[in-house]
Amino acid sequence: MLDGKHIILGITGGIAAYKSAMLARLLVKAGAEVQVIMTPAAKEFIAPLTLSTLTGNPVISEFFTANTGEWHSHVDLGLWADAMVIAPATASSIGKMANGIADNMLITTYLSAKAPVFVAPAMDLDMMAHPSTARNLSYLRSYGNHIIEARSGELASHLVGKGRMEEPENIVAYLEVYFSRHNDLTGKHVMITAGPTYEKIDPVRFIGNYSSGKMGYALAEEAAKRGARVTLVSGPVSTSVSHPSISVVRVESAVQMLAAATKAFADADVAILAAAVADYAPAEPSEHKIKREGNEPPEIRLVKNPDIAATLGQLKKDGQHLVGFALETDNEMANAADKLKRKNLDMIVLNSLKDEGAGFGTDTNKITIIDRDGTAVSSSLKSKKEVATDIFDHIIAKF
Ligand code: CTP
Fold first, then answer.
1. Phi and psi at residue 49, in whole multiples of 5°?
2. Residue 351 annotated among the catalytic residues of the structure
3. 196: which DSSP letter?
4. What is the C-alpha to C-alpha distance for residues 143 and 83, in angstroms, rounded to an integer?
5. Is 327 in the pocket of ligand 1 (CB under 6 A)?
6. From the CA of 358, how far away is ligand 1's center (Å)?
7. What are 221-257's pLDDT values in tens digits?
8. Does ligand 1 have an atom closer than 6 angstroms to the CB of 34?
């Protein structure tokens, strides 16, 4: 499972750093190409020479090599990696990762990484139990990082409690399970609609909605991480993408979104319709700015917009999977199930505006996934990144 994978092994300054040599060896044995990045403190615990010998790659620790001036690009490293494993992760480094304190090469690379990040904490039991550590780890989880929990046992202080880094062979096993479950969209084309649509009233005004596009963008990043080629058809939002496998088609109105989505759907394996498409558009947008002076308030006649989901539902061929969203305020389950049937979807993701933290503009969401056969699975309030992971786990398990 790790054959050919590019793995950054981040080592921070804790006594468990001596086990990182074994971890590096096991990763290389499993077929991975390993690039070690050490924090300055880590080098007090284990020699870079050990790691460079085991991985066949020079260890990186500083922003540049002093004698040659060669710059180490954390951005390039972040793009190169298929996974980043930080083991051991000390309380200090976890705190820096949680809060974006980029004062060494490892943290800058972490902040630039597009790949999944695995964190194996190791520290004394009191540090492990401190609320600050718990809070920082919960931040990392909310960023979509995977925490490989520390174990209980005898610690360097000779105290016994939780804080031992997970054993290297179990960390490798964790990665193997992750890749066997998650990299299964390689070679697939995923189309996603995201954001609001703007329907023109005149050259300076539009009818729109509060959608931020965050859910659709998180889905696009997740699909790309799993190896898919992604077409993201996006309404006007300020959110941006970073993964090189995502191509963004920017549109404004529902009519433009329909055209771009239909085109991309032709060879898509999975389409997810996360856009908040305006249901109506002004029938006759004015070519000139509508003036206030000397005019009665205008009456704007509206016409129905095309239903993109329903159109793709009609076009859908065998082997194509169509996933919709339903944002509801009342009768949530019944309305979502009805939309699923009406639009010929395979799955619908329901969020209720009654749930605090769900819906537009937030960084979190609370969803229920409903399948064609009526089965429904609800989850707790999570970051949109985590929700994107759950949605793809579900799609892959089902289809
Ligand atoms: N959708 C779409 N095109 C539209 C309207 C909705 O593709 N013109 C998609 C949304 O992206 C979403 C699903 O259909 O995946 C349901 O959207 P929603 O706005 O909840 O449903 P509507 O059909 O607009 O129903 P209503 O406004 O009556 O709730």
1. -60, -40
2. no
3. B
4. 15
5. yes
6. 17
7. 999 988 899 999 999 999 989 888 899 999 999 999 9
8. no
Ligand 1, atom 1: nearest CA belongs to which residue? 309
CA-nearest residue, atom 9 of ligand 1: 309
Residue 119: count of CB within 10 angstroms of its CB: 23
Distance, CA of 298 to chain centre = 44
146-172 burial code (b ≥16 CB/10 A, e <16): bbbebeeeebeeeeebbbbbbebeebb
CB neighbours of residue 1 within 10 Å: 16
Calculate how far, in angstroms, residue 307's C-alpha sits from the geometric centre of ligand 1: 7
Q: Of the residues 99, 104, 136, 209, which is catalytic?
A: 209
If you measure from the C-alpha of residue 304 to the centroid of ligand 1, how many angstroms do you get, rounded to a whole number? 12
Cα–Cα dist 71/66, whole Å: 9
Hey, CA dihedral for 205, 209, 210, 213, is it positive or negative? negative
Residue 325 CB–ligand 1 contact under 6 Å = yes
Whole-angstrom Cα distance, residue 112 to residue 101? 13
CA–CA gap between residue 294 and residue 186 (Å, rounded): 61
Question: What is the DSSP code (8-state) at residue 4?
Answer: T
In this prediction, residue 183 carries a pLDDT of: 64
CA distance 372 to 13: 51
> Has this prediction a pTM greater than 0.90?
no
User: What are residue 60's phi and psi, to 5 degrees?
Assistant: -105, 135
Q: Which atom of ligand 1 is nearest to the CA of 306?
A: 8
Q: Cβ(276)–Cβ(361) under 8 Å?
A: no
Spatial separation of the C-alpha atoms in residues 91 and 128, rounded to whole Å: 8
DSSP annotation string for 146-206: EE-PPEEEE-TTS-EEEEEPPPHHHHHHHHHHHHHHH-TTTT-EEEEEESB--EEEETTEE
